[in-house]
Amino acid sequence: MKGKFYVVYLKPDPEVNAETVKEAMNKCLDWYKANSTFWIVYTTRDAEGLYKRFKPCVNEKGRIFIARLDLNDRQGWMGKGFWDWIKKERE
Questions:
Q1: Which SS3 state, helix, strand or coil, does residue 43 take?
Q2: Rounded average pLDDT over 24-53
Q3: From CA 14, how far away is CA 78, in angstroms rounded?
Q4: How many CB atoms lie within 10 A of CB 50?
Q5: Which residues are paired to 43 by β-bridges?
Q6: Is 16 exposed, middle or buried (0-12, 13-18, 19+ CB in 10 A)?
Q7: Which domains are assigned to the chain?
Q8: Could you give the angle at the alpha carbon of 31 between the alpha carbons of 25 and 73, nearest 5°?
Q9: If we measure between CA atoms, which residue out of 27, 13, 26, 88 comes closest to residue 56?
Q10: Distance CA 3, CA 16 (A)
Q11: Quick check: pTM over 0.90?
């Protein structure tokens, strides 16, 4: 099954440590952390599946938003590492 890209805004519950979030992200095929709350993930799951995976990181005191990302129509000003990650071969 071919992977898809998703934008994930995840502000963890204050009681959830960064390692727990990283472990959840590592279950994706690939991911890029743009800042402390914004990731792009590459996965075979859909938004609902990602929500179920990341919900334990959020609980009631955190926030989460997940949306499919179409990288065919893109533009921006980001660092080289970001663009290298976007352009790399997958599958």
A1: strand
A2: 96
A3: 28
A4: 20
A5: 4
A6: middle
A7: 4-86 (3.30.70.240)
A8: 135
A9: 13
A10: 28
A11: yes
